[in-house]
């Protein structure tokens, strides 16, 4: 499986972050909930979501890639939630 996390990070209408991955040539959006972004970095939870994403990019993209490789793609997207931070 060829997984490329190409980005860019974009703020969605509901305030989450979407980041594009390309999996075997197919675009798959990775969605990071606002709650996840706040919970990954509680000391800076009042920062804007884009700053929180950028500060924690490696960990967040690592979680997204793991979910992709485990086949946890729902409706053509990968969703990363707070519960995924503990894995």
Q: Supply the helix-strand structural class.
A: alpha+beta
Could you tell me the mean pLDDT? Answer: 93
CATH class: Alpha Beta
Shape field: globular
User: What is the strand tally?
Assistant: 4
**Cα radius of gyration in angstroms:** 12 Å
The CATH homologous superfamily: Shew3726-like
Give the count of helical stretches: 3
CATH-defined topology? Double Stranded RNA Binding Domain
In this structure, how is the largest beta sheet organized? 4 strands, mixed
Strand order of the largest sheet: 1-2-3-4
The helix content, as a percent range, equals 25-40%
Quickly give the CATH architecture. Answer: 2-Layer Sandwich
Q: Roughly how many Å apart are the termini?
A: 21 Å
Low-confidence stretches: none
Helix-strand string = EEEHHHE
InterPro entries: DUF1488, Shew3726-like_sf
Please characterize this protein's 3D structure.
The chain is α+β, with helices and mostly antiparallel strands and 87 residues long. The chain has a single domain (3-86), classed as Double Stranded RNA Binding Domain. Helices cover 31% and strands 30% of the residues. The chain contains three helices and four strands, in the order E-E-E-H-H-H-E. The protein has helices spanning 34-40, 49-55, 57-69, and strands at residues 3-11, 17-23, 26-32, 78-80. Strands 1-2-3-4 form a four-stranded mixed sheet. A hairpin with a 2-residue loop joins strand 2 and strand 3 (26-32). The longest helix is centred in the last third of the chain and has 13 residues, at 57-69. The two termini are 21 Å apart. The model has no long low-confidence stretch (mean pLDDT 93).
